[in-house]
Amino acid sequence: MKSTIRKITLNIGLATGVLLGMSGCQKMFDLAPEEALSTKQMYRDIYDADAAIIGLYGKFSTLAKQYVILNELRGDLLDVTTNADLSLREINAHAVSETNEYANPRAYYEVILNCNDILKNFKIMLDQNKIKRAEYYQRSADVLALRSWIYLQLGIHYGSVPYVTESVETVDDVKSLATKARVPLVDIIKQLIQELEAIPATYLDPYTLDNTLVSANVDGYSPTTFFIEKHLLLGDLYLWDQQYTKAASMYKYIMTTSDRLGFEATDINVWYHLYKITRGQISSGMGPIAVGYNSDINDINNLLDNNTTGWRSIFARDRSNTNYNSTSNTSSISRDPEWLWLLPFDSKFLPENPFVELFSNVGGKYLLQPSKAAIDYWNGQTQTNNFAYDARGVMSYKNINGNPVVFKYLYNFMNPNSSGSIYSLVGKSLQEKNGRWFLNRAANVHLKFAEAANRDGRRKLAYALVNAGVASTYNNTAISDKTNLMNTFDSPPYDFDARNGDAPTRYRSSWHLATGIRGRAMVKSNTVEGDSTLAIENSIIQEGALELAFEGHRWGDLVRVAIRRNDPSFLANKVYDKLRKSNNPNAEAVRARLMNKDNWFLPFRIQ
């Protein structure tokens, strides 16, 4: 590419690295955040438009620390350590002052105002024929979706917020937003749905490989996971709005990506396993991304607990390995089999990885730790080999130097040994704080689909996806003829064909290797007791804790279900149990406070 990109929206190292890879420009950018909205000379051609997108995601990555703190520490899975400051303790105790640094929405609005400015300038570029119509719609849809995601987050945490779509001159104008009328969460969701539904369906799809935004390998990173998944976002909005069939349809669209791309069910390489939750090989020469054992399944010391194979590798594997981002069709989407949205932190770029500081007791401040409640959740499960624990727990956190450490975010920073009692650095020094911001993956899509399906009267299907999969749940092992088995025989989006048999004809249907969330984790299926809708919903939310712990989904899940049930105790009791198990003397008072829905939301003050 010969075009020289002159300016990006923010001083973000990730954006700089991407731009260098795309344009060949050797000049480092050094813009102060206040310059981000001065864009008069930015938008000359498609490469400048791409620079704006990448710069936007660079700025967006600065939200990672606040996002994880608000979504996990407010719930039941994270707890403070003795090193935590007052702001973190306030978040944990749901007694947040207006000056709390993590409750300040300013950073979110700075990204929103960047989105608004980019959308305005993209329209000018289109009007001046500087970009093609398709290029405009593709990139504008991306920016609009990112802004919508941020507004959903703001609504979840603050209850009502100013909804601003116009551009402003400087980020100092963010403070003036506090004087604008605030829109309640329920109305924000409806507005966001309306805006996303107006996007032509073609532009809801991810960027294809021939797009200038994703065609380059960037310092060992594939940009394919940098960008928000718009079908998933729209599915989430429908789920919050209790439009369950529409939500399930959006999730199913993602889950059937390999089917839409024409890959056969017998093609069990990486493409078959794309977003399907399986135990099998994900590509030639690479191991499974499921909980498993090296040889003897009854020897606990044989657990696959390394960065290359097994469930842990979802968070730790080398993302520069092309086996995880390959395709035989250059017009198709190049995708990781699990991750839909993930952003890297690299010691060579800004912003710095915030998770080492938050979680590590080696080279970090060790401010947050897994809660006793979270550990009990994992220890309360039973594997199919009858080991009395959930192996996802020992790979989500490790005991380092005698302390429980959230480790999902640290595998690219340090490597624990199999006992978890010592460590070795991945890089050459403590300053190489490489890592990733985990935003969304296939397991969350399946859990959200199950949540929608359960509320839409498809309880058995919801149960199947959470537990052992459609093939197992809809089967009768005593019958060899699978013609009328291992299949939901339902209308879209609830039609799942998982037939796998050889009589009277050979079946290898699309979902025949999909094992369900718990099946992939090698834990025994749940039993359903009492009201099946509520029992299955409880199990789905519980499975979210076991599978997605610390990834930023927990608080939203608790709030959404509590609102749906009109039952504050659903949320309040989980937070209470966390605090009680950590011997927090304020546990009862916090529970009483959370029994009032108004107290779920943070004070809105832009500092």
UniProtKB/TrEMBL annotation:
InterPro entries: SusD_RagB_dom (IPR012944), TPR-like_helical_dom_sf (IPR011990). Residues 423-573 form the RagB/SusD domain. It is found in: Cell outer membrane. Gene3D superfamilies: 1.25.40.390. Its main location: membrane. It comes from the Bacteria. Pfam families: SusD_RagB (PF07980). Keywords: Cell outer membrane, Membrane, Signal. Belongs to the SusD family. This is RagB/SusD family nutrient uptake outer membrane protein. It comes from Flectobacillus longus.
